[in-house]
Hints:
- By secondary structure, the chain is an alpha/beta fold.
- Helix content is 44%, strand content 11%.
- The strands form two sheets. A six-stranded mixed sheet has the order 2-8-7-6-5-3.
- Helix 2 (16-22) packs across helix 10, helix 5 runs antiparallel to helix 6 (92-100) and helix 10 crosses helix 11 (250-261).
Amino acid sequence: MEISKDLLKALFGCSVTQRIKDVKQPSGGYINPKEMEIIEMGEGIDFLNPEENVHATLVGLSVDYLTRFMSGTPVEAAFYISSLGARLIKEQKNAQKLLEGIKGLDNNSIVNSVKLSGYDVCARTGIMGYRPVNEIEPDISTITNIRTMVERSLKFLEKYGPKVLDGFTFEGGYTNIVSSGDGDFTTSDTLWDFKVSKLKPKKEHTLQLLMYWRMGLHSIHPEFKDIKYLGIYNPRLNIVYQLAVDKISSYIISKVENEIIGYN
């Protein structure tokens, strides 16, 4: 018997991103991205190679995980979800070999990081979307772009860091409706999300940040009590987008907490 996705969600809940797809937001979003302050960090998308031969999702994951690794997170922790995905399809040995080949921002390390990130789909959405990682071969334009974006991200962290939480989950903050989801990182007063996209932030992105913030406050992490800003950093555009949480109305916060996350 085939079980519907709606029934699975009712029984086990869903991820933050899945929940957002099901939500009909008001015009402009619960948080309009236009309300965010825009801070340009330097050279942007025009200084990157125009073409990449690897899916944008893998490029984004690789930039994210390599930035974590290069900013002090152990490589095993930075690529934890990738390794988990590999275990689900019994490819631990290949994943470990790729992991051991990630040393820095040399070409081989970047290629290994992209291949290893290919296992993420198994842990996040299921093995149906998996493509054999050894078939993934980033070209020099893609490798160069990834290196540049990681270097930009490290400069961003020099200005806005250091990191406080990195690759966190929300134990204590999940509900019957939203039962999974993980955030990128926090600094002393800001909850940050990485978006390696050619596009400006959308209302789905600002709702994601709002949900992360409220789930963080309900979670086991006391660090969320110090959050004063929600922020997005996009190393492809090399732009920071930031919003003070005291500008978000209590009505919107209550509506998202109760109707979307399910704390009522």
